[in-house]
Amino acid sequence: MMPSRLYPRMPENAVRSQSQQLDGERLGLQILDELPAPVFLANQSRQILFANRAMCALLKAEPERIIGMRPGEVLACENSTQVEEGCGCSEKCAACGALRSILEALQGHAQSDECRMIRNGSAGLEAFDLRISARPVSDAGIPLVLVHVADISDEKRRNNLETIFFHDVLNVAGSIRGFADILLAYDLKNPREVLLQLQEAAQQMIDEVEAQRLLARAENGDLNPVREPLESWQLLERVVKMLRGHEVASGRTVTIADESCREIFLSDQTLLVRSLVNLGKNALEASDEGETVTLKAKRHGGGICFEVHNRAVMTPEVQQQVFQRSFSTRGSGRGVGTYSVRLLVERYLAGQVTFVSDNASGTRFTISLPA
Question: 224-371: which CATH topology?
Fold first, then answer.
């Protein structure tokens, strides 16, 4: 059972009564209200009794609307609607840093943790990285948790840029330098092979830059998809060619399933190829040498879907966070791939991204597109 279920939701009239009791402690609330940092007070059921002006500004909501809600419900976290009990009660909530911090404070211990959250905002899919600091307090005789919320999304984006973009681009730049050194140091009778590798490395660098620019534009809502007729097999051939030229494919096989369909459909080629390449790279990184990553296209209802499969199995913890923006199995600051796929497919291609991962079938990500 989720630990959060030990603190069931209180009825609205009881929450309002607790909130009114806090009104008698006006000096303390006035001090909190003047703080420039977003803070709120929650009861033992994790329902908000008070939110200061900075918190209301962050949420773009009036204080009265917030009272009685749980943090994820106020922030419109997509997991808060997964089960009837609301925020903190679905299986995916087990990895939530905000929930961990608040539950720890309810046990009498101050706690700070990071929270990765995806919400469906007015512009579509939005990702937030928050640092949640919670500590136990008591006011008007009510056991409470004082919670400070810091939006660290920009910090995480900078870290991602430095650890992913700079690292990968420098690696490719090193390859280009190495090939250039070979051309300068040796009088090659047939330099074509080296030149082809040099060209491939340069293209990979361009792809890395384009990928980061594409993600930034997607998050800012600046993309305008161009739907054009595409042929499924030809699209997969292009993706496979790109994956085979990537360093993560070394010692591994990338192939197209023989039963893949040859279907004409409408979509944005750049966004779809980028999404499939990201899924393919993730599959290759999760695969051992000698293993195979298989891509497949098949008809799905009136539309089409694309699958990327590998034999590795994700742990339950990874599965709970796989679409979070800053989560990665490769260490701090390495996560963006599956998040960007979902962002591009769901916000701009009107599709859906799903996955299954178990011992029987390995891991299979599926991009489903409408007709």
Answer: Heat Shock Protein 90 (3.30.565)
